[in-house]
Amino acid sequence: MSSCSRVALVTGANKGIGFAIARDLCRQFSGDVVLTARDEARGRAAVQQLQAEGLSPRFHLLDIDNLQSIRALRDFLRKEYGGLNVLVNNAGIAFKPDDPTPFYIQAEITLKTNFFATRNVCIELLPIIKPHGRVVNVSSLEGSKALENCSTDLQKKFRCETLTEEDLVDLMKKFVEDTNNEVHEREGWPNSAYGVSKLGVTVLSRILARHLDEKRKGDRILLNACCPGWVKTDIGGAHGPRTVEEGADTPVYLALLPPDATEPHGQLVHDRVVQNW
């Protein structure tokens, strides 16, 4: 591959919304599409499925919970393409409502992947995003709901325009700590680990977009969070009213914003519409 080749990458893309996003990008993106998964066999099976449809994705192993795995992917992208044009952070987990796992363990595991690991991917891959690059963090309106169910004090902190990345990390750690000490409700947190993790992703997206404006304004990189809606997947469950194709629509729309676009940026987008925060 020459470093002038364009490349788009989707995390957690062997099934569900991630798979549908990878498929759409294979059809619409002018360049290579890298489908990643933490399970090599499942990832390669997903690639074969798309190849059977006449599409040509590449596969790369990625476990976002493993920093070495993220860095190996970064090094591959640098070597093969000289960077990255489109990053879709789709990988994530959710416990089922009837899961008997204690809430504090659910909180720790959910935030570890959905917030902290997603942040690690951003830390390692944002520096190699090329000019006019697009970054899409798959979040959820469940994060907005979690914000509404926070105490007034916490809402104020999350909405603060000058909240730093370090402050946000401390808030996410405090939620995990408070659940472990069984005081999270008393401390003003909602009862949704998934909601808080996605609240973190949305706020992180706002902060990272601000960083890009400060450090790389001329590169016109656009970074947004989005909600794919309630989709019939392993995470969404069998009752989701949307297909994975419908769920992929907004993430793909944001990934393919034209080079001259200046917005949306640092926003939460649902059904291609910027949401009030």
Automatic annotation (TrEMBL):
<dbReference type="GO" id="GO:0005737">
    <property type="term" value="C:cytoplasm"/>
</dbReference>
<protein>
    <recommendedName>
        <fullName>Carbonyl reductase (NADPH)</fullName>
        <ecNumber>1.1.1.184</ecNumber>
    </recommendedName>
</protein>
<dbReference type="Pfam" id="PF00106">
    <property type="entry name" value="adh_short"/>
</dbReference>
<comment type="similarity">
    <text>Belongs to the short-chain dehydrogenases/reductases (SDR) family.</text>
</comment>
<keyword id="KW-0560">Oxidoreductase</keyword>
<keyword id="KW-0963">Cytoplasm</keyword>
<keyword id="KW-0521">NADP</keyword>
<dbReference type="GO" id="GO:0004090">
    <property type="term" value="F:carbonyl reductase (NADPH) activity"/>
</dbReference>
<dbReference type="InterPro" id="IPR045313">
    <property type="entry name" value="CBR1-like"/>
</dbReference>
<dbReference type="InterPro" id="IPR020904">
    <property type="entry name" value="Sc_DH/Rdtase_CS"/>
</dbReference>
<dbReference type="InterPro" id="IPR002347">
    <property type="entry name" value="SDR_fam"/>
</dbReference>
<keyword id="KW-0597">Phosphoprotein</keyword>
<dbReference type="GO" id="GO:0047021">
    <property type="term" value="F:15-hydroxyprostaglandin dehydrogenase (NADP+) activity"/>
</dbReference>
<dbReference type="InterPro" id="IPR036291">
    <property type="entry name" value="NAD(P)-bd_dom_sf"/>
</dbReference>
<dbReference type="GO" id="GO:0050221">
    <property type="term" value="F:prostaglandin E2 9-reductase activity"/>
</dbReference>
<dbReference type="GO" id="GO:0047020">
    <property type="term" value="F:15-hydroxyprostaglandin-D dehydrogenase (NADP+) activity"/>
</dbReference>
